[in-house]
Amino acid sequence: MHIPKLIIRVNNPSNFKMKLVILAVLASTVAAFAPNAASQRMASSLAAENTDRRAFLNAALATSAAVVAASPAGAIRDYEAIGYLGGSDKVDLNNANVRVYLKMPGMYPAVAGKIVSHGPYASVGDVYKIDGLTGGEKEVLKKYESRFVVTAPSPDYVIDRINNGL
């Protein structure tokens, strides 16, 4: 078997490192597909046993089903303040998305954008402390103040407050 020579020039140290990484990846790829004694022994033993594919697949499926059935769910299923994220007349200032404020004329986009980009808020009154609120915007906030609630910020919802991909 002919092995080509690889010439690496060391003009730039970072370029040299990159070439070494590429060389290592190529060598490991070739090694993965090269036949070796262990793979030949395994192939011959499988051929000798004449394993029934259907039995093997049934056993594998049963094992994977048992593992999946035993796995606990990692998600929060019952978020107690889910109604405050847009499903009721109350809105959580710390967790609700900017689009929830579309239901309140005069809030979206200016006032809503300021609410979600500031915070977290300890109380509903903290919303009036936002820098740059105009008199008109404060009047709009006052109009809907009874619809606001404050709960602890939840990482599951805070991440999508400004842009939820819609």
Automatic annotation (TrEMBL):
Transmembrane segments: none
Entry's localization field: Membrane
Chief localisation class: membrane
GO biological process: photosynthesis; photosystem II stabilization
Family annotation (Pfam families): PsbU
Membrane-protein topology: Peripheral membrane protein
Keywords: Membrane, Thylakoid
Signal listed as a keyword: no
Keyword Thylakoid set for record: yes
GO cellular component annotations of the record: extrinsic component of membrane; photosystem II
Similarity comment: Belongs to the PsbU family.
Protein name: Photosystem II 12 kDa extrinsic protein
